Structures are given as C-alpha cells and as structure tokens.
UniProtKB/TrEMBL annotation:
Residue sites binding substrate per the record: A131, N206, A207, R214, H237, L291, A292, G293
Class of this enzyme: hydrolase
Protein name (Swiss-Prot/TrEMBL): N-acetylglucosamine-6-phosphate deacetylase
Residue ranges constituting the Amidohydrolase-related domain according to the UniProt record: 41-359
InterPro entries recorded: Amidohydro-rel, GlcNAc_6-P_deAcase, Metal-dep_hydrolase_composite, Metal_Hydrolase
Native organism: Palleronia abyssalis
Family under the similarity heading: Belongs to the metallo-dependent hydrolases superfamily. NagA family.
Alphabetized GO MF terms: metal ion binding; N-acetylglucosamine-6-phosphate deacetylase activity
Keyword Hydrolase: yes
Length: 366
C-alpha cells in the first residue's frame, strides 16, 4: 500500500517543500526547492556502522541481544546498522557471527535492519586496546576467510602493524570487506600506505597513535590522507573543536555511536564482551575510568552535530549518506526514488515524530 509524508524533505539535491510517497521503497519525491528548511523535517534514516549494543543488551550475547539492540536504536532513528564485535576468543567470535547471520535472515519487524557484521578486532595492537578485552593477536587471513564463510562481514577494524605483509588487507579486499584502521600504534608511513590501499578509520582520535608535528601517527595520517573516517559525536569521546577540525580535513567524516548496552538505559552496570562497564553521567567506563564505548544514540548525535554548528542537511548526511556510501550501498542513506523507504520525520526541536524502516513504522519512539 502506497503511503505519503508531507514536509520539508532532504533530497540529494537539497531541501524541497513537498511530498514523499513510498511502500517498501520510495516511489516518488515531489516538491519545490526551498532555501531554508522548516519543520516537519523529513530525513533519511540513520546508518550506524559501529554499534555494540543497546537497551541493556550486548551483541556478543547472541541473537536476542542483537534484536533487542536493533529495536532500541530504531526507536532513536537508526534504520540500518552493523552489529559490532569486541576482541574475543575465536569461539566467541564464531558465535557472534552465527547470531548476526540468524538476525539478518530473520530481522525484527520493529527494529533497525542489520547490514552485516563489523569485526572490531581481534587483529589489533595489544598495546592500544582501549576498552577492548585482552584477546588481540596477529593477523590471520585464513581465520578471516573462515569467519567470512559464517556470516556477511561488512567491516573489519585492524591495526596495520599487526598485518606487516598486508596479507589480511588483501584477503579483506578480495572478500569485499571494508578495512578500517584502529586500536593501533602504527607510525605515519604505515598508516599512509594502508590508507592509499583504500582503508578507512575507526573512531578517529580514540585508541590510535596521535597527530603531532613530530613522530606523527595514525591520527595524523588520517588528517592528511583519509577520505572516510568514523567519529563518535557524543561530545565525550571527542570535543566539539576536534570534530570541527576533522570535518575540515576528512571529506567523508561520518558519525557512529559505538553504543554499548547502556544506550537508552538508566545509569548502572552493563556488559561489553567479557567486561562489565558502568554508565554514569552519559558515559560508559571501565572501573579504571577508561571510556568503554558510549551510551549515544543517533538522534542525539544529530542534535550534537547541529549544536556545534553543522547545518541540519550536513549533519544528516554525515549520519546517513556517508556511511551508506562507505559500504557502497546507494539505496540507503538518501531520499530518492528507488531507495529503500528508511526515513525519519522530526519536529522543530529535532525530536523524532516518526521512524520508517523498509516502509514499516517503528512504534514507541524515544
């Protein structure tokens, strides 16, 4: 059944005042261009490529945990996402990938759509784990191929110094899996070489060798050479000025939540892989105070980006279009005929009034 939404619609060509019609896909977008948007705003659904959990659930716990997180994040505007692992033993990652496969085959009708797994580790530097559990190990292209046979993997975060001959990077690219650099102590030259081969960046600034005027590392290479990079716009992991600096340097900087089970939940203790993490004052931390993922949701990310000076259309693109582009998915992250009917309606306060995933309305918005 064809339905419609009226409002100020963000199209790839800019804002129009008009009407969008859709069923499971967008049928038509018609209207007149406007120089400035006015509510209700109609935006593409958010695409979150780095999310560990939500609604009290950690995705390493299995299928029901992934479904719980998918429901929670859909109520906050995420319409498609990559369930993300932590560094863990092989058996735990096998089970995680099996769960991702099962949820992709039978996604919740009232949740965000899983696009495939993001493996954050285990081929990361043990000296730059951040809040990753202590199961890092050297790159193993054979193990990667075994994991790719279990489930669709979209992204792998690795430390390039753990893959000195680029065998893993080559295997990832041959399998159509996006490479992201993170949890790394590599130097500038090693990072530059990996970026030249098409790699992106995981949670820019966090858990990586620094940007500096001498002894530059991964962060500095990202500023000089990256085209796509994640950033966590919770204003805790990265302050406003650092986000704005990265925005000027990296053309397709895009936002992720890096959300854990504490997203959408009250203060308390939650799981992150084999760790317990504490939610307090909007942040997730290990007992020693180390940031451990976030409690961010994408609707808050949008408001944060607007609050630091980004226009609404740009903030939206950095949470929807750019991450879809990074995965090479032209039918996501944009409101254009033929694209999936994943869309949001927001009021003047940028609060969600409607979320549509594949043509279905999501109940109980937050």
């Amino acid at each position: 059944m064809t339905r419609q939404i009226d409002g100020t619609i963000l199209t790839p060509q800019g804002w129009i005042d008009g009407r969008l019609t859709y069923d499971t896909r967008i049928a038509a977008v018609r209207g007149d261009p406007v120089p400035e948007p006015a509510p209700p705003y109609v935006l593409p659904g958010f695409v979150d490529l780095h999310v560990h959990g939500g609604g009290g659930a950690d995705m390493m716990e299995g299928t029901e945990a992934i479904r719980t997180a998918a429901r929670l994040h859909a109520r906050h505007g995420t319409t498609a996402f990559c369930p993300t692992s932590v560094t863990a033993p092989t058996g735990d990652l096998d089970a995680f990938l099996d769960a991702v496969r099962d949820v992709m085959e039978d996604p919740p009708e009232d949740g965000a759509r899983p696009l495939g797994a993001h493996l954050e580790g285990p081929f990361v530097n043990p000296g730059k784990l951040g809040a990753q559990p202590p199961f890092a190990r050297p790159a193993d292209a054979g193990q990667l191929k075994a994991w790719a046979a279990r489930a669709r993997i979209r992204i792998m975060t690795l430390a390039p110094e753990m893959d000195p001959d680029d065998a893993l990077l080559d295997a990832l690219q041959a399998a159509g899996i996006r490479v992201q650099l993170g949890h790394s102590l590599c130097d500038y030259a090693r990072a530059k070489a990996a970026l030249a081969l098409g790699a992106g960046i995981t949670h820019l600034y966090n858990a990586m060798s620094v940007m500096a005027h001498r002894d530059n590392g991964l962060c500095g290479a990202a500023f000089a050479h990256a085209d796509f990079a994640e950033i966590i716009p919770d204003l805790i992991h990265v302050e406003a000025g650092a986000i704005l600096a990265a925005r000027r340097a990296i053309p397709h900087l895009y936002g992720v939540t890096d959300a854990t089970g504490g997203a959408g939940m009250p203060d308390g203790t939650y799981r992150l892989g084999s760790y317990e993490v504490e939610k307090f004052e909007g942040a997730m931390r290990l007992p020693d105070g180390t940031l451990a993922g976030s409690a961010l949701t994408m609707n808050t990310a949008l408001r944060n980006l607007v609050s630091i000076g980004l226009p609404l259309d740009e903030a939206s693109r950095r949470l929807s279009t750019y991450p879809a582009d990074w995965l090479g998915l032209p039918d996501l992250g944009r409101l254009t005929p033929g694209a999936g009917a994943d869309l949001l309606v927001l009021d003047a306060d940028l609060s969600l009034t409607r979320v549509v995933v594949g043509g279905r309305d999501i109940p109980d918005l937050r």
